[in-house]
Amino acid sequence: MIKSQPFEQFLKHDTSYPITFDLANLVVHERNLTRINFEKYVWAVDAIVLNLFTAYLEDANKTVGISRDKNFWDGKDKFYGNPKLSFTAMVTSLDALKKHGYIDEVLKGKQAYLGWHGITTRYKATEKLIKLFKEYTWNEQQVYVSPEFPSIRLRGKKPKRTVMHPFPKGKLIEFEDNDRIQLMRKVLDLINENLKDTDINLYISKEEEKELNRRMANDAKDEEELDSSVRYHKKYLYRVFNQDFEHGGRFYGGFWQQIPSEFRSRLTIDGFHTFEMDYSSIHFAMLYHKEGYKKEDFKDPYTLYIEDEQLRKVIKTTMNIMLNTSSFDEALVVCRHHEMKLPKGTYKTWKALLEDIIEHHKPIKKYFFKQLGTELQKLDSDIAEYLITTMINKHGVLVLPIHDSFVCPIKDLEVLIDVMHEAAKKVAGLSLYLEPKVSKKNYKGFGGKTFKINESDYYQRRKDFLKTIGLYYLNEPPNYV
Predict the structure, then answer these.
(1) What stretch of H or E contains 218?
(2) What is the bridge-based pairing of β-strands 122-125 and 103-107?
């Protein structure tokens, strides 16, 4: 199986110009091009080379899927694409770089037919290009995403669920800009500028990183939004809305959102260990509040009559399916085809579990099967926006959002909790129950353990980051708080 990653159109690198300028010159002279916009070829080569570089960092044999379809680059669906990249410049550059031995074409693309997905042409860096990476001492911390990337995205109506696609997504669609959208974009610009200038890292050993990448490769299902390995340069956020700007709006894009939850306890922010706080059962807390229940009256909605942690996780997923489907029967089909399983000794059938949830949650049962999930997401995403910007502007603290939970340096945990309460009150007019995911004493690797330099790439990644912002680096472990 060929390892591959999708092409990112908005990658940037502040010191890539010496390589890409020379390679763009090679492309232009190879094709004997005249009266051309040379910058277009620089942009094309830059994008190609940076994508191959990020793939090479994970595995020298990893490929990048790069479209050779004219409609992809120059067609009507350019709304979310990079306007600087054109079909002619991209394909001409790919062919010239291949001819001169800088890139290899590993797999030819195939058009889609009869409902099957097509295959994008796969490319990888050759030893000749890798030699340039090493000569100019590139590292992943120097790679970032251009501020021009589409930070506000709108998806159309979801297609019908099928056995093959139980969780379908609507296609990205165009929208008209307005003052409100421009304001959201400015807020994201502020957040992303802070993310770019912050060292966000994982304090893990090399063996743990191998296990993490293996887990991510096994879990990857969506080439567009799921990575099969940790890609540390993905520190930018964007908001995704559903059908209109009153539904959805959650923040996506950060590499920390895609790693398994047990590894998130190993995140560091500017060298400080972190802690994750979440709004417990946020959507169901909102619904109970709507029915007049106070925070004190609200119990854990994911524990019915049987105390079982594995069952609790299944109930949590099931209740969210019930919020996002249009009927009992549809929810039943989704549960039956979901990868989760009913734990032994609990419920015999999915139907029995759904009926028990409805009985247990009588006060809010009218909200099930109404497809309210994205409407509630709009509210929790607005809470997140208020929280993140308040932490930056008022307290000078960067927090990492994971939908209804937030990661911050342990030293700033008290401030985060205060702002979480403030955000829920200001935006939604309610108090939400806060619940730490893991206690400090359970954090693996905490309590004074320091990895030796040869046990982890953490120190090199941190050193590389500090070089990019011009700071001197000392071989010291992260800050303990």
Answers:
(1) helix 206-219
(2) antiparallel
Helix (H) or strand (E) holding 278: strand 272-279
- Residues 258 and 221: their CA atoms lie apart, in Å, by 12
* Three-class SS state of 450: coil
Question: Domain coordinates of the chain in residue numbers?
Answer: 4-133, 152-283+373-468, 302-360
Q: At what angle do helices 413-423 and 373-395 cross, to 10 degrees?
A: 130
| Contact assessment for residue 332 and residue 351, using Cβ atoms and an 8 Å cutoff | yes
Residues 246-281: pLDDT tens digits? 999 999 999 999 999 889 989 999 999 999 999 888
Which position has the token pair 């770019």?
A: 196
Query: What's 251's DSSP letter?
Result: E
User: Cβ-count burial of 103 within 10 angstroms (0-12 exposed, 13-18 middle, 19+ buried)?
Assistant: buried
Cα separations in angstroms, 431 against 293, 426, 475: 11, 10, 44
3-class state of residue 85 by DSSP:
coil
Q: Provide the H-helix boundaries in 75-196.
A: 87-99, 127-135, 179-196
pLDDT value at residue 441: 46
CA dihedral in degrees (56, 272, 188, 48; nearest 10)? -10
pLDDT over threshold 90, residue 32: no
Region for residue 468 given its phi and psi (left: phi exceeds 0; alpha: psi -120 to 50; beta: otherwise): alpha
Tens of pLDDT, residue by residue over 330-343, are: 999 999 988 899 99
- Cα angle 277, 281, 282 (rounded to 5 degrees) comes to 80
Q: What H or E segment, with its residue span, contains residue 123?
A: strand 122-125
Place of tokens 């030293």: 411
